[in-house]
Amino acid sequence: GNSVTQMEGPVTLSEEAFLTINCTYTATGYPSLFWYVQYPGEGLQLLLKATKADDKGSNKGFEATYRKETTSFHLEKGSVQVSDSAVYFCALIRGGNDYKLSFGAGTTVTVRA
Amino acid sequence: EAGVVQSPRYKIIEKKQPVAFWCNPISGHNTLYWYLQNLGQGPELLIRYENEEAVDDSQLPKDRFSAERLKGVDSTLKIQPAELGDSAVYLCASSSGGISYNEQFFGPGTRLTVL
After folding, report:
1. Quick count: other Cβ atoms within 10 Å of Cβ B51?
2. Where are the beta strands (DSSP E) in chain A?
3. Mean of the per-residue pLDDT values of chain B
4. Could you give the CA distance from residue B43 to residue B82 in angstroms, rounded to a whole number?
5. pLDDT score at A40
6. A3-36 exposure pattern, b = at least 16 Cβ within 10 A, e = fewer
7. Does residue A105 contact residue B40 with C-beta atoms inside 8 Å?
8. Per-residue pLDDT for A99 more than 80?
9. Is B4's Cβ below 8 Å from some Cβ in A?
10. Nearest-neighbour CA in chain A from B36: distance (Å)
11. pLDDT at B100 over 60
């Protein structure tokens, strides 16, 4: 079946530090990959996505590249801010007309001023 | 544009009591999802509706959980009777549907505590 494994947290960083959250997946076919973010007290929001190999998703300074050879979709940001403190979830949807999101366990990121 | 609305935001009940959660999706979204999120885990799909039809309820524990989406808009998820292990966050999401993936928009969730 489909599964997503992401780096365990919590992760604590200082402002302007570099952030990487590792995500690897197992899936049949050609899944689409996503990063969702959950800010305190809010619902999950789509941060970025990539639908095929070598695609790079980007948003709000975050980037992730779909690497089929390593089945990975690591999230990166070059300079984090306090406002980036949140829980980050890696997720996938199997290819075709599948609608079911399979999520990783989430990584809590805290950025200190 | 209003997002997905859920109520209540928090609910504390004793075991064996019934509980219900309500969700109002984004206007015009035909597809509605209920997810269960246990502490420290990612959400897991419970049920998906296309309009008023439950098209995938394979992960819904039907002995105690039920859901409905009358008129294809609002939805209610019910647990009767609640057990200690049901303590979790219940998320509702909606999307514009169709056969290709459309972004799912999530509500803030209802945090249930069963004592």
Report:
1. 13
2. 3-6, 11-14, 19-21, 23-26, 32-38, 45-50, 56-59, 62-65, 75-77, 86-93, 102-103, 107-112
3. 92
4. 19
5. 87
6. ebebbebebebeeeeebebbbbbebeeebbbbbb
7. yes
8. no
9. yes
10. 11
11. no
Check CB contact of B38 with chain A, cutoff 8 Å: no
Q: Do A43 and B104 touch (CB under 8 A)?
A: no
pLDDT band at B101 (very low <50, low <70, confident <90, very high): low
Which chain B residues are within 8 Å of A4, Cβ to Cβ?
42
Q: Report pLDDT for B38.
A: 94
User: Mean per-residue pLDDT for A49-66?
Assistant: 95
A51: nearest CA in chain B? B101
Q: How many helices (H) and strands (E) does chain A have?
A: 0, 12
- Token readout for A18 is 């570099």
Distance CA A19, CA A21 (A): 7
Strands (E), B16-64: 19-24, 31-37, 44-50, 53-56
SS3 A54: coil
Mean pLDDT of A52-68: 96
pLDDT per residue as tens digits for the range B30-50: 999 999 999 889 999 999 999
